[in-house]
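Design request, tokens follow.
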């Protein structure tokens, strides 16, 4: 039930959906004063959620920066959500979060890690989609990483299940932490809290930063809407709601 509700919430919480919904309400309402207020609120939501400066500053404050002085554990856990199988083209399609995978490949090739836990099942509501870890495993092999190095975990559908299943794997294989937790920077706070709650000691390794650390704003950035900012706002709002939902349900 929690999994299904989370999928519905992802759609409903998007700022653009709220903006469109308010405009539709304004269209059907018969009260002129209410119509004016609804249009103004809708435009305000759209402006704030697509403002490059505001969204970037919020994102910078939320994302965790890497701790360059921290010692890297020998085992890395990659959280899924960066690849899907395109059945029409018969190929694996990587998303902009693919840095999760390639960062771990780079760490292994530099001999900084020795084992990899590939955590990622199917996030499909119907459950008919092939687990992500199943088609990502051959990609690791193509980069010279043998199967003996990788522990595949293909049951997880969300971050909570990532943590619970990883904890079970570590226990079954008599592996003591900490482990290197690899996920997107904006997703790291919830991931760390969830893994810690599950009893897994982690060393955060944030990748896939969606904020621009070097500001370099131009005057139009303060006023002209940005589709890129709207995309970032969607990701951050989704993460905030996910964090609050996990906190309320005791998952972190």
């Amino acid at each position: 039930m929690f999994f299904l509700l989370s999928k519905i919430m992802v759609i409903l919480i998007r700022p653009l959906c709220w903006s469109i919904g308010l405009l539709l309400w304004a269209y059907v309402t018969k009260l002129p004063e209410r119509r004016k207020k609804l249009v103004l609120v809708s435009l305000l939501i759209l402006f704030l959620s697509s403002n490059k400066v505001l969204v970037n500053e919020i994102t910078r404050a939320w994302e965790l920066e890497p701790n360059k002085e921290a010692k890297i554990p020998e085992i890395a856990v990659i959280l899924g959500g960066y690849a899907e199988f395109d059945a029409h083209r018969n190929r694996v399609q990587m998303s902009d979060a693919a840095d999760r995978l390639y960062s771990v490949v780079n760490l292994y090739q530099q001999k900084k890690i020795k084992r990899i836990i590939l955590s990622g099942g199917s996030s499909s509501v119907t459950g008919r989609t092939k687990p992500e870890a199943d088609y990502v495993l051959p990609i690791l092999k193509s980069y010279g990483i043998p199967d003996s190095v990788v522990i595949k975990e293909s049951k997880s559908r969300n971050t909570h299940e990532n943590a619970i299943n990883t904890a079970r794997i570590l226990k079954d294989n008599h592996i003591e932490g900490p482990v290197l937790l690899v996920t997107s920077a904006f997703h790291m706070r919830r991931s760390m809290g969830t893994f810690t709650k599950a009893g897994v000691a982690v060393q955060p390794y944030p990748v896939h930063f969606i904020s621009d650390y070097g500001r370099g704003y131009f005057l139009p950035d303060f006023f002209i809407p940005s589709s890129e900012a709207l995309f970032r706002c969607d990701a951050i709002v989704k993460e905030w709601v996910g964090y609050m939902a996990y906190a309320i349900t005791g998952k972190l």
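Comment from the thread starter after seeing the answer: thanks! The chain has nine helices and seven strands.
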